[in-house]
User: What shape does this take?
Amino acid sequence: MLRRRTPLAALAVAGLTLLTPAAAHAEAYTPGSAGLGDPYFPHAGNGGYDVDHYDLNLRFNPKTDVLKATATIAATATKNLSRFNLDFSGLNVRKVEVDGKKAKFRRKGQELTITAAHGLAEGGKFTVKIEYDGKPKPVNDPELGVTGWIHTKDGATALGEPDGARTWFPVNDNPKDKATFAYTVSVPVGLTVLANGEPRNVGIVRVRNGWSSVKWEMREPMAPYLAMVAIGKFKVSQGVAAGVPNITAYDPVLAKTSKHLHKTTAKATEWGAKYFGPYPFSSTGGIADKVDVGYALETQGRPVYDGDVTDDLLIVHEIAHQWFGNSVGPQTWKDIWLNEGFATYAEWLYEETHNGPTAQQTFAKLYKNKGAFWNLKTGNPGRNGMFDWEAVYQRGAMTLQALRQKIGDDTFFELLPAWAEKHRHSTATTRNFIDLAEELSGQDLDPLFNAWLYKAAKPKL
Ligand SMILES: [Zn+2]
Assistant: This one.
């Protein structure tokens, strides 16, 4: 993300667990937890299963604001489950089925709790199908801004970081649980739909009774907060960059964006592949829309920009996230600097390689900061400080430049693609990064990372 400038998960109450006859002899079937213990979002995500695939069938009418949808979620039980939760807010749940059989459900806060007709055995695959409808409402967090299903003048755009996905589909909303996605989106004829990934049948739009329907697919694993659908009036451009399709779109009212978005996205994708290794997804792109949220978001494979995009560095930032944040995701939100520090550093490096100031010059300028700037913890900025410009973005990028100075250019430019490669399509922690940097450099780097990430003081050079 880039702006223009609780208590632990409630433990499941041990109640009566009804065992199926077969299960009575095996290990007990117990409820999946209502959270995954993320330090900042303890209720986000749920325990006891892993999602493999989300198939979202969405029908949206901007005139009435009504979304009518069916989510079909394929998952694997990671323990014997008597029931399990999904994150889901607002909207009306009409029907829930597990493996084709009607299931019981109840709702409390952001938790949708589902009890299947039978217990779900550890290691077994299951499919949950949820029919729902209503007028989606975005999350309006006083500290983190507006996310979720956001109504626009001509449609809607869904943006999920960090916990807005639950406003438009039932989800295991934790960055640890990546899955593939397919969308079938129906909208009134005349509107265009974009999403993550690629259209399944390029150019094929089914039209029926004034509604058109298109399919999009994200075939690489994706954290739910990166799921995106954009509905509205768009001008779409298609090309190729770094060997993959480049699909960009802009709302025609954003005239200044015009060809700039398409060209710069291609340029940034190719530049990134040079420094960070192979581009991790099967397409690239970008969408400029009037969303009025005041930030751009690196939605997987196709970032969304709010308003006219004329700033190359903003595009470089969001494209750099495709490697750092999207493909290599944070295991918990505490490690958000692995996303934002790296994407900000990519901006510095882009400037350095395009006749701008060197990353060291940018670093030196910031290092002159006095006072409150140093009273920050990059490696644990707190829930409300996740997107703190100075702590997470600037000091995060400075951490990487301090590392580059310490281990030298050769090792540093080996480390960036090695990091992207080692945790490709997965998640990682700050510890994993320190370990890899130490392995490649042969140096003890704990003192450097401790000073830059975990101490609220100005690190010595
Ligand atoms: Zn960002």
Q: What stands out?
A: The longest helix spans residues 258-276.
